Amino acid sequence: MMRTQLARSRRDPVRALLGDGVEIRPARADDEERIRRFLAGLSPRTQTLRFFTGVHRPSASLVRSLLAMDERRDVLLAVHGEAVVGHAMSFKGGQADVEIALVVADEWQGRGVGSRLARRLLRRASVAGARTLGMDVLGDNRMVLSMVRRAWPEATMKASAGAVEVTATVDP
User: Fold this and answer.
1) pLDDT by residue (tens digit) across 9-36?
2) What is the rounded distance in angstroms from the CA atom of residue 87 to the CA atom of residue 108?
3) Of 145, 78, 81, 89, nearest to 113 (Cα)?
4) What are phi and psi of 165, to 5 degrees?
5) In what residue span(s) does the N-acetyltransferase domain sit (predicted)?
6) What is the reported pLDDT for 56?
7) Which of 28, 74, 85, 137 is 20 to 30 Å apart from 16, CA to CA?
């Protein structure tokens, strides 16, 4: 297990505007149409890397599930203007304290949006008591596996049926 030290913050602002004009904020009920457009705009490869299948026409139930927040689920969006450019969610349960998943619009990949979403999501989960994180990554998702190796060099990675199960320990 790896131990990751997250930067401590005096506060976790609800809204944070990043230098590239991208705002990271919690999802809201009025984000349904933005999420639908975001999902539909993802390339088939990006859809598959995130959902392990294509999402040609996002269903209303998928959109609602990606926005659902409660005591077990947290959802953050990266927004540029009115457009969603990234989505990150965590949920309590599974083999780790918190499981995370995220996806970034094709044209925003490689710019650090995914890393910032992950850090913010994990900071919020840590404040809520999470000490271990888990995620499933397709084996050919080199960009995310590389990010995991940089962020959590001692994370355990177990290959299983074409996916990699990632587990790491998160310090408060």
Assistant:
1) 333 333 444 467 999 999 998 999 999 9
2) 12
3) 78
4) -90, 120
5) 22-172
6) 76
7) 137
Find the domain containing 42 and state its range.
3-171
- Measure the CA–CA gap between 133 and 3, rounded to whole angstroms: 11
Residues making up the chain, counted from first to last: 172
> Is the confidence at residue 7, as pLDDT, over 50?
no
Q: What is the identity of the amino acid at 57?
A: R
- Which amino acid belongs to residue 138? L
The closest alpha carbon to 171, from 120, 134, 133, 126, belongs to 126
Q: Which stretch of DSSP H or E encloses residue 132?
A: strand 132-138
CB distance 58 to 153 below 8 Å: no
Question: Which two tokens mark 133?
Answer: 């994180």
CATH number at residue 119: 3.40.630.30
Query: How many structural domains comprise the chain?
Result: 1
DSSP 12-42: --S-EE-TTSEEEEE--GGGHHHHHHHHHHS
* Angstrom distance (rounded) from CA 11 to CA 112: 22
d(CA 43, CA 165): 24
Residues ≥6 apart with Cβ < 8 Å to 107: 85
Over residues 24-49, the mean pLDDT reads 95
Beta strand pairing call for 73-80 and 83-93: antiparallel
**Residue 160 CB coordination number (10 Å):** 9
